[in-house]
Design a protein that fits this description.
single chain, alpha+beta, three-stranded mixed sheet, three-stranded antiparallel sheet, 2 helices, N-acetyltransferase domain-containing protein, protein-N-terminal amino-acid acetyltransferase activity, Acyl_CoA_acyltransferase, GNAT_dom, transferase
């Protein structure tokens, strides 16, 4: 789930959640979802970037985003909750 956010000419994409059921992993579904969000952000809204948050403990997902050339901009302590670790965006 994602969305384009912004006003007038300043648009960007935001990844709210990318979830794939375990039995459908390794079918490139997350890649397909991200491709579509990036396409809509850049081609439809002329957006400048896509942002997201991911748990720092979610190494598999972080590797996927890094493979797509996403960068860690900042770490938000206790973003998800103090019991589940901090988020990174």
């Amino acid at each position: 789930m994602g969305k384009a956010e912004g006003t007038t000419k300043d648009w960007y994409g935001h990844v709210t959640a990318v979830t794939v059921a375990p039995e459908y992993c390794r079918l490139s579904l997350a890649k397909t979802i991200m491709d579509e969000l990036e396409h809509v952000t850049t081609s439809v809204y002329n957006g400048n970037f896509v942002d997201l948050s991911v748990r720092v403990s979610n190494k598999i997902t972080i590797r996927m985003y890094e493979g797509r050339r996403y960068l860690a901009y900042r770490t938000v302590m206790e973003y998800y909750s103090s019991s589940s670790g901090s988020g990174s965006g």
